[in-house]
Amino acid sequence: MYGVKSESDCEMIHQDQMDSPVADDGSSGGSPHRGGGPPLKKGPWTAAEDAILVDYVKKHGEGNWNAVQKNTGLFRCGKSCRLRWANHLRPNLKKGAFTAEEERLIIQLHSKMGNKWARMAAHLPGRTDNEIKNYWNTRIKRCQRAGLPIYPASVCNQSSNEDQQGSSDFNCGENLSNDLLNGSGLYLPDFTCDNFIANSEALSYAPQLSAVSISNLLGQSFASKNCSFMDQVNQTGMLKQADSVLPGLSDTINGVLSSVDQFSNDSEKLMQALGFDYLHEANSSSKIIAPFGGALTGSHAFLNGNLSASRPTNGPLKMELPSLQDTESDPSSWLKYTVAPAMQAIELVDPYLQSPTATLSVKSQCVSPRNSGLLEELLHESQALRSGKNQQPSVRSSSSSAGTPCDTTVVSPEFDLCQEYWEEHPSSFLNEYAPFSGNSFTESTPPVSAASTDMFQLSKISPAQSPSLGSGEQAIEPKYDPGAGDTSPHPENFRPDALFSGYTVDPSIFNNAIAMLLGNDMNTECKPDLGDGIASNSSSWSNMSHACEMSEFK
DNA sequence: AATCGGCCCAACCGCGCTCCC
DNA sequence: CGGGAGCGCGGTTGGGCCGAT
């Protein structure tokens, strides 16, 4: 490893190390390897080196690491010495696997802090940031592979409670939004401006998707119910940015942003205002936000440039979507499968955190005996998933299926878990799973355009609605023709926000809810970044009455 | 038994912050 | 005030280990 294989190699510095200007500069601020001294050794530490370092620290204490080389003749930079000491040599270090309690704590801490390994390590005596980091990276890999949630429900619930009580020393929303969402690369990109614009540039029909932002905005707001995202939403002006993508809503937005706050503490009211009250289970503690997840995760997947939603968004099924009278779709019946609210909040934030396949896995026979989210249990669920997959074709490309316009995506293997059920119970599937239909992100999901076009196709609007669309865009126009009496659902309705409106009992309610969500503190900072294309093409979305008119299923 | 692929984890790397001169 | 030194942090790398085939 690193060119140093044994202790005997200590005296032999490899040529590549010799060639490097500084074997290990120790810090950006100044290299300990200055003035033509012997090149510093890299690679694994030997027992002799450890002994030297330990002896030095015993005599001089920690700190002043660059002095180690000077005083001991150890050909290691101070940085390397510090790392070695901190991670391996200092006393009271715990070695070995993390205990279950430690794992829970790590998960909980990460849900609050994000990738602040050092801070997390401070809560875990004897554990190093490096250990925690490695553990977490491993965990993420496993979760991704298994399509399982990274955060067990209990963890985020606890975080939520702490936030609501103001007892946490950090804010779940803040950290999720800043650290989780942006920091690790697993999480939500800054979709509203950065990713969104990037995608917009890549796709000619992206402007229409500006409206997707509002779904995210709304969804983020609802996510705040469980993970205190509302603070972040307010702080970052995400809601304010909605005005940039929905200029026509300026008045509405300008009017009531301040009223958003009340909903951060009273999302029930908001849910009802949005016509989602039927989603509430009798047990208020089990309130779900799945429909928002549908809107959200769909848009989210798009925002991540990853999507494989072709199946669940196929037309005929959409007609069944609002039906909650289906036995399968009875809230109480499918709530029993539903992961805890907080977990769903996480889902809303990031398709990585819980893909729909993860949801499916939970709903399927592959239910873990526990749901603590510990690695061991993840393995269990992963194995269960695999066993489930073994009963079905392992990989299926939707391009080989019915040939729907959207079937350009390679469906994740996990998705096959629900394939048969999907085919047999399309309506109930949609009712149950559609909320996550746009969120089928897995490792097998193509990173950008191929998958995203599914969503984009679903999201684009007709020329009538968007006169600015060129002929080129028409190549991907939906087949639905309202004028021709086509009773197929308009692809517009597959837009996350259309789904959103589809659930709306009353368009006015929807409007009011939008108004309440998007307040009046208009912030134009983002406007220039959004670009002319979006601004001009968002006209079709600027009048939300259009969205309300899409409430065909009310 | 050999090969392969995934996992683990120690270490490296670059960046940024703080302190001091 | 500016620059250097020291240090910490988070991300990444890559070799060894181990189980599966």
From TrEMBL:
Primary location recorded for the protein, binned into one broad class: nucleus
Polar residues compositional bias, start-end: 384-408, 462-471
Membrane spanning residue stretches: none
InterPro entries tied to this protein: GAMYB-like, Homeodomain-like_sf, Myb_dom, SANT/Myb
Biased composition (Basic and acidic residues): 1-17
MF-aspect GO terms: DNA binding
Biological-process GO terms, alphabetical: cell differentiation; flower development; pollen development; regulation of DNA-templated transcription
Region entry Disordered, spans: 1-44, 383-408, 462-494
Boundaries of every HTH myb-type domain copy: 37-89, 90-144
The keyword RNA-binding is annotated on this UniProt entry: no
Entry's Gene Ontology cellular component terms: nucleus
Keywords, alphabetical: Activator, Developmental protein, Differentiation, DNA-binding, Flowering, Nucleus, Repeat, Transcription, Transcription regulation
Every Myb-like domain range: 37-89, 90-140
Gene3D superfamilies: Homeodomain-like
Locations listed in the record: Nucleus
Biased composition (Gly residues): 27-38
Protein name: Transcription factor GAMYB
Organism: Phyllostachys edulis
Species classification: Eukaryota, Viridiplantae, Streptophyta, Embryophyta, Tracheophyta
